[in-house]
Design goal:
single chain; alpha/beta; Rossmann fold; 2 domains; six-stranded mixed β-sheet; six-stranded parallel β-sheet; 21% strand
Length: 258
């Protein structure tokens, strides 16, 4: 029985199992199983992975960057992003991929097509694995972007939230600005919190893309929409990155059987 799953902590919010259960049913793969694995640490991860008999797994917060040290090699995109959200067992080796970046890129391209616009500036809230996947995608799309951190002194190349507010205060309203929330603030454990304050200067020229999909809308999305900003949650991205993960897993299984 091919076994797959999701590792992270916590996982109570995750919709990944439901997505893969539906995918396996649709494909008639009754022998495939997808589980949720809340790991308190990655100690002996390689041994744990093999002991569980996994053929592949997804990775979510807080392990997208930490897990790299436990893998045998990385795909080119995962190495470029320096974050892994998909792991395959290939010829006995653990190989890391990043499907967040192409999933975000494709969903953003669709959004721009629907809106009939191209963003002139983007700001990424956060400095973890999800944030770097977003940055990699924006670079591929040639969209100028900045990382925003609550502790910019500890993260080279980032700006603070006060600097973000100042930058937006002088932005021409004819510009099209994208703000991406790549932090976990707003998830069930922090459902009453927002990554940006209630008085943040949102407007019609701003699109907020919140990678969180549960709950949706988040408090941040509601605040942005109330001030005229366009909003999007992360559910479409979740489904697409999962489908891209399945492509990697099924390809590695096909190689194994040949």
């Amino acid at each position: 029985m091919p076994r797959y799953g999701l590792i992270g902590m916590p996982l109570g919010h995750s919709a990944s199992k439901d997505h893969f259960d539906r995918l396996f049913a649709r494909l008639g793969l009754e022998d495939c199983h997808y589980g949720l694995y809340e790991l308190s640490s990655l100690d002996d991860f390689g041994a744990w992975f093999r002991r569980e008999g996994l053929s592949g797994c997804n990775v979510t917060s807080p392990y997208k960057q930490q897990v790299i040290a436990h893998l045998d090699r990385l795909d080119v995109s995962a190495a470029a992003v320096n974050a892994v959200n998909c792991i395959c067992m290939e010829d006995g080796s653990l190989v890391g991929y990043n499907t967040d970046a192409p999933a975000f890129q494709q969903t953003l391209e669709r959004l721009m097509e629907v809106q009939g616009t191209v963003y002139t500036q983007a700001y990424i809230l956060g400095s973890g694995g999800a944030a770097h996947a977003v940055g990699y995608a924006l670079q591929k799309l040639s969209i100028t972007h900045s990382y925003v951190s609550r502790t910019p002194a500890q993260h080279a190349g980032t700006i603070g939230y006060d600097s973000l507010r100042s930058a937006l205060s002088v932005t021409d309203k004819s510009s099209r600005v994208l703000i991406v929330n790549a932090t976990p603030v707003g998830m069930p454990s922090t459902i009453s919190q927002s990554a940006l304050p209630s008085d943040f200067p949102f407007g019609e020229h701003i699109t907020l893309y919140d990678l969180i999909y549960n709950p949706s809308p988040t408090l941040l999305m509601r605040c942005a929409a109330a001030k005229g900003a366009k909003v999007k949650d992360g559910l479409e991205m979740l489904h697409l990155q999962a489908d891209l993960s399945w492509q990697h897993w099924s390809a590695s299984q096909a190689i194994k059987k040949s």
